Amino acid sequence: MLAAALALGMAASGVAVWTASAATNYWTTPAEIKVVDDALLTTLIDERADGETRITETINGTSTSYTPARETYSPADRQWQGLPSVARMGDRLWAVWYTGGNGEPRQLNYLVIAYSDDGGENWVDPFLIVDHADPEHTGVNTGVPNFWVDEEGELCLTYIQYYTWIIRFHDADAADIGDVTWDEPVRFTNSKLHKPPTFVTDADGSTVMMIASEAEAGDTHTDTTKIFVSADGGQTWQQRAHLPSAAPNNRLYPESQIVQTADGALLLVSRLEKGSGGGIECAWSYDYGYTWTDYAFNLGAPFIGPGSKFHIMRLASGNLLFVNHSTTSSRASLYAYLSEDGGDTWVSMPLDTRSDVSYPCAFESDGKVYVTWDKGRYLEKEIRLTILDEEDIRAGRIVSEGSADKLVVSKLNDEYTDIVELVTQFEHEYEVPVGTPSSQIRDELPESIVVKDNQGNEYTLTGTWRSSGYDENTAGEYAITFSTTLPATLSDTYGLLNVRAVLYEEPSSSLGWVLPVCIAGGVVLVGAIVLAVVLVKRKKHAK
Hints:
The model is unreliable at 1-23 and 510-543 (pLDDT under 50).
């Protein structure tokens, strides 16, 4: 029997106080995978989460004592949720994130696994819970989950609990959810992984798993990134290289990721805090990760960020996908970027231009990319999902069949709503010749707009139309936005208050002559055909 690792005393208020006094090997035992039923939904996530017991824990070196709120495994009790990951297996979508307690990382953290069998329109949340009982209350928590698929095509889930652990699922695409099975969690690596491993082609043509690690179990994050590879599915790992950060004073949670370009080069991308140095530093390897260029920062968009997680991967086409913030100032404006030349140039489309959006993760299946992220972890408590493909990113908006914008995986605060319907109708797309002033479009748009939210509530909005950046002399696409003051709990999540203006170059109106010539009986016959091209103003109506 392990020695008790807690001290039980009495607080001034007379309630029990639990304090973790020493680590035990419970940190190195697997979490439990629980199938959710009605009984579990009413079970406390921890005996200390009763709304009365005080606990003490150390977070980033600072000890705090507090009384957790009463919390069961019911979604209604979640005080926060975020850091999601997504996968598609057959016709089933899987999502995972973590929650529990009043934030992260905390002793009471646990994982939520949900699934959808209708393309993401509806979700079973929660389907499974991954949690550690922590019977001696030593502060064991589970967090930072990531879905990925191994070389055998099996769905895998890795998460951090001192080490990085792995759960392997079997028949995750089974028509009957009851036929899905899974193995008990086992230790995957001593490294604390914030992203899935990257499968790369090695020098001999074989496929190996590669990870970038800044911290081993028991360590805090360091200013050095270590590169490890495994050629046996994660049974063993070998260090291939290490490289120091170029900005160690601005590096706290690097959350490094590796991607291999179509020509075999490796790109390492690491996070810098609070937009320092542009918010991201990068290094390259041209010999399969044995040697690397020095880290470099201040690289410009899209390698910028506010100090938050991003996602980079190579698509089946060989092109690169990079999901990241378009700003260094705050966790706002998530974009999907696409590069067809190994990362030299990029095109993009907005995913979510709202504030407090973060931690994107993406998964590709059958030509579609599934991107998930969190919005307002502690307020709206949303997990969103967009389905897109390369055509959408090139167009800068959702245009392809089968794509979907900002599906709700989970949203726990009903006070916050989305505009989903325009009662007042107006043009949403204009195609006009270069030289058309924005005022000509704005004058056609209403100054008062009636909208409905997803709960059926109706609002009358008044404001003005703004066309920041509009250049009537330059062809291109421009956004004209309705500037209004929305209620604090209402959001134009889907951009229904935006108008798209496309300025196109108008060909010359001069006549074009075609002179067909033929010879008949030694006589040259010349005929003249006049070709005139007439262009008219094109205006597309919103449905």
